[in-house]
Amino acid sequence: MEKVWYYMKPDRKKYGPYTDAEIISLIRHGILEERDYIWMSYLDAWLNVGKSIYSVYLPPKEA
User: Fold this and answer.
1) What are the pLDDT tens digits along the chain (63 aa)?
2) How far apart (Å, rounded) are the C-alpha atoms in residues 63 and 47?
3) Is residue 61, in this structure, part of any structural domain at all?
4) CA of 62: how far to CAs of 36, 38, 44, 55, in Å?
5) What is the residue range of 43's domain?
């Protein structure tokens, strides 16, 4: 069964549902950013994208 994700921007506006592939695409296109949050039904709380397994898809930080 495909995972179903939602995301939340800092203004607390929520979007979804999205598949894993769609979440990765949103990150790669700069729509979903490090400071945003993701959630799925098995999680107790919203998870920061920058601290999730999806952080590997974020653009590299500039020095």
Assistant:
1) 677 999 999 999 999 999 999 999 999 999 999 999 999 999 999 999 999 999 999 998 776
2) 25
3) no
4) 19, 24, 32, 15
5) 5-53
